[in-house]
Amino acid sequence: MTAGGAPTGVGTGIGSLPGDDIDAALALVAEALPGLPHLPELPGRGAGSDMVGRTASRLVDLHVDLQPSGWRLVARPGHDEARAQDRLERDLDALVPALPGYDGDFKVQLAGPWTLAATLELPRGGKAVADPGACRDLAESLADSAAAHLADVRRRLPAARLVLQLDEPALPAVLAGSVPTESGYGRVAAVDASVARERLAAVVAAVDVPVVVHCCASAPPLSLLASTGAAGVSVDLASGRDLDEIGALVERQVALWLGVVPSLGPGVPPTVRQILEPVREMWRRLTFDASRLPSAVVLTPSCGLAGASEGWARTALRLVTQSAAALAEAAAEDVLT
Length: 337
Known about the structure:
By secondary structure, the chain is an alpha/beta fold. The protein has helices at 22-32, 51-56, 79-93, 95-98, 113-119, 132-156, 171-176, 193-205, 222-226, 243-251, 272-286, 310-332, and strands at 2-3, 6-7, 63-67, 70-74, 105-111, 161-167, 211-215, 232-236, 255-261, 297-301.
């Protein structure tokens, strides 16, 4: 099923997983997420395997290196960038034996332009988000690199229907003016919402696949994310409960990707019924017909699983798939209560 072009009615992961074995990670997502597997990020392998490092190493006509304070924009490519690029290429090559002949939906993730701007350092110091020109350059470069990245994935999975997830956990801080300055004592001035929307929309428009924007911050700007032309918005259900905004997204056929399974093991795993109850309660309060629910949502963990144990990561991914299947079955039988 799709809403606005984005897959719905299934479970998927956010992106990151524990461990350092890409073959094992791909085997896990292929087995646990048959409706929408994704290219895992494995930050446990070190710098360049994380969301920001992986994306920054792919930027077109911009270069980065690694400093004690994090990734920094530089004039020329260097060893850190090359190492991250090489690791990503090997991850992409691993798709071929992991998913031979795959012809379903498949998701890849990149950091969004504002999370990059709030994280990357300028050559002379300070976050890139403080420099409007650097923000513009980052968005333009990311638009080109997203298209190139998708082309690289297509070469490995030519029959797959690709979906791009843009991760924007720092966007609320950018809008609120709460990104720390280099000293840590000040804050970078807030970016106007219209500028934030414009830059993010340019990246969304640059690719020919459905885009879902993910924000796991406590107050995701739902309306802004949806207004970028994204086919879906991905948030933690506990943090995305503004019913007026959620209802407006449903009416516009923007897919809701809801984080419903804890990203860290809670001890005793929740049951499928416990996972689905807040989703059902939200839908009842929205007063939409129950039969529409499965075709409006995708279920995910609440955030990435890099900090989880390998056992919990496996359990969490299986739970989102089982819960999505149970939701669809209940709606089909008209017993959604």
